[in-house]
């Protein structure tokens, strides 16, 4: 999609700090990190939500999660890490292209602050 930020990254129109790449998945550093290590894992094909991706291509959904795990390992996140996939406006998502946040590098604390 021409107006999708992540599709433009996949197409090479916008640079990214790539951590891991497979034929169908790209993992790169978030430009506004929320933890010492903050990566984004995306499918190269455009899908909007994780549920839509899992329904359309379950194998790719598995590849996406596997790539996120391999990238976390490559980054040395041996103490643990958090995976987050936001969906819908209430989640605070900013890019409507499915992506999994990989956060780690320090104790992350509670998932939500109330």
TrEMBL record:
Motif residue range(s): Histidine triad motif: 97-101
Span of domain HIT: 5-113
GO molecular function, one term: catalytic activity
Pfam families associated with the record: HIT (PF01230)
Active site (UniProt): 99 (tele-amp-histidine intermediate)
UniProt cross-references to InterPro entries, sorted A to Z: Histidine_triad_HIT, HIT-like, HIT-like_sf
Domain of life: Bacteria
Alphabetical list of PROSITE patterns matching this protein: HIT_2
Protein's name according to its UniProt entry: Histidine triad (HIT) family protein
Classification lineage: Bacteria, Bacillati, Actinomycetota, Actinomycetes, Micromonosporales
